[in-house]
């Protein structure tokens, strides 16, 4: 796989697909990790006297009204602050204007084009990998660099389409390179290897469970996805999250790996799905209207006991309903424990709310915090991504 360092970039127009899909509130960036993660690749291209054109999506856009609050203009402003140099921004998706703007670039210039998802209005050209759109973007550049790991599992025009149009002249950036290196270490992990899985749905994690169950020492399951497993074992789970379509899979995994799958023994519960002071209950004490919203203190200790000798840990998904402060304790306590064990335990956190929690609570010096979510899971399951396959020369 070619990287950005494989090319002579001097004087070339380099199209870099970034992932600037950052959280926004009232037109302001709430958290800029995905922007800062792209800087190394952008700065490298600039240091080689390239003309840099940046592409990214922001949020979901299906119709004209969805564009509100989804412009990348605030990202351009933040990039200027971080790079300490001007960043041009084009608030238009008119192709003639875009081409004119790109053609006028000089060496060392940076241009950020408007949200790629604006091309989805009424037609899904971006998310449907429209060939004409991909060809247009490809026509703007001499070299295409994909540094948007979080989108590489999607067959979009700005990821797969452009790469297919520029075969031989495309590669990956430093962010993607690091993601692949760090995540690939899990394919031959140092033992004991422990997998922690949380979040709401078993269905989202089936591929990861099937992939790593044979090679790992333990699978610690928390979050909403613990309840289909507990129900399959015959426990009363009250009004907790149910997932009928996963029942058979859970039964099969419990029968096949009875010594590996570790489930919660207590929960912080509530009667309603909302922010409230929870009540800790043993699993055997659940009433019909009890809803488990976070793992309890005994489960935290149980999970820590299984983690204390681990050499490698993969974690995807929070242990509770992370958006409610009262139900963050399980996630935070396990993060704290792994942070304290980081000298002997290589911990990879697979994107999403778990990474957000790690960063917010300064548990961010672990081995790897992935910028992906769905892309991380897809790569771990398949050991490749459609965005990578599109770059391969036949």
| Computed CA radius of gyration, to the nearest angstrom | 23 Å
The CATH class of the largest domain:
Alpha Beta
Q: How do the strands line up in the largest sheet?
A: 5-6-4-1-7-8
Beta strand count: 17
Tell me the name of the CATH homologous superfamily of the largest domain: Phosphoglycerate kinase, N-terminal domain
Range of helix content? 25-40%
In this structure, how is the largest beta sheet organized? Answer: 6 strands, parallel
Would you tell me the overall average pLDDT?
95
Number of helices: 15
Outline: elongated
* Percent of sequence in beta strands: 15-25%
CATH topology grouping of the largest domain: Rossmann fold
The total domain count is 2
Question: What structural category do the secondary elements indicate?
Answer: alpha/beta
CATH architecture of the largest domain: 3-Layer(aba) Sandwich
Keywords for this structure?
Rossmann fold; 394 residues; single chain; 2 domains; six-stranded parallel sheet; 17 strands; alpha/beta
Give an account of the 3D structure.
With 394 residues, the chain is of the alpha/beta class. It has 2 domains: 174 residues, 3-Layer(aba) Sandwich (Rossmann fold), CATH 3.40.50; 195 residues, Rossmann fold (3-Layer(aba) Sandwich). The strands form 4 sheets. The protein has a 6-stranded parallel beta sheet, with helices on both faces. Helix 9 packs across helix 10. The protein is elongated. The two termini are 12 Å apart. The mean pLDDT is 95.
């Amino acid at each position: 796989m070619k990287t950005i360092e494989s090319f002579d970039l001097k004087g070339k127009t380099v199209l870099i697909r970034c992932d600037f899909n950052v959280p926004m509130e009232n037109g302001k960036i709430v958290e800029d990790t995905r922007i800062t993660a792209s800087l190394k690749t952008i700065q490298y291209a600039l240091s080689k006297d390239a003309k840099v054109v940046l592409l990214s999506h922001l949020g979901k856009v299906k119709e004209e009204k969805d564009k509100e609050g989804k412009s990348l203009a605030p990202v351009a402003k933040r990039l200027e602050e971080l790079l300490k140099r001007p960043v041009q921004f084009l608030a238009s998706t008119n192709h003639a204007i875009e081409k004119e703007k790109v053609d006028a670039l000089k060496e060392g210039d940076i241009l950020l084009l408007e949200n790629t998802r604006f091309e989805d209005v009424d037609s899904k050209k971006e998310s449907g990998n429209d060939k004409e759109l991909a060809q247009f973007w490809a026509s703007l550049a001499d070299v295409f660099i994909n540094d948007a790991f979080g989108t590489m599992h999607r067959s979009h025009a700005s990821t797969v389409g452009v790469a297919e149009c520029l075969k031989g002249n495309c590669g990956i950036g430093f962010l993607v390179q690091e993601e692949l290196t760090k995540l690939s270490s899990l394919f031959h992990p140092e033992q004991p290897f422990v997998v922690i899985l949380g979040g709401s749905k078993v269905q989202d994690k089936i591929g990861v469970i099937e992939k790593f169950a044979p090679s790992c020492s333990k699978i610690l399951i928390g979050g909403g996805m613990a309840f289909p497993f507990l129900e399959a074992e015959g426990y009363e789970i009250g009004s907790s999250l149910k997932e009928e379509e996963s029942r058979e899979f859970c039964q099969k995994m419990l029968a096949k790996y009875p010594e590996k799958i570790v489930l919660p023994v207590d929960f912080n519960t509530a009667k309603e799905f909302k922010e409230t002071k929870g009540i800790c209950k043993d699993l055997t004490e659940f009433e019909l209207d009890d809803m488990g919203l976070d793992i309890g203190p005994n489960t935290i200790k149980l999970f820590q006991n299984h983690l204390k000798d681990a050499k490698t840990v993969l974690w995807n998904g929070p242990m509770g309903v992370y958006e409610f402060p009262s139900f963050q304790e399980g996630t935070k306590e396990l993060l704290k424990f792994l942070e304290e064990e980081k000298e002997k335990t290589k911990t990879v956190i697979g994107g999403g709310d778990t990474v957000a929690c790690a960063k917010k609570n300064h548990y961010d010096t672990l081995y790897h915090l992935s910028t992906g979510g769905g892309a991380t899971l897809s790569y771990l399951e398949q050991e490749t991504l459609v965005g990578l396959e599109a770059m391969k020369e036949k």
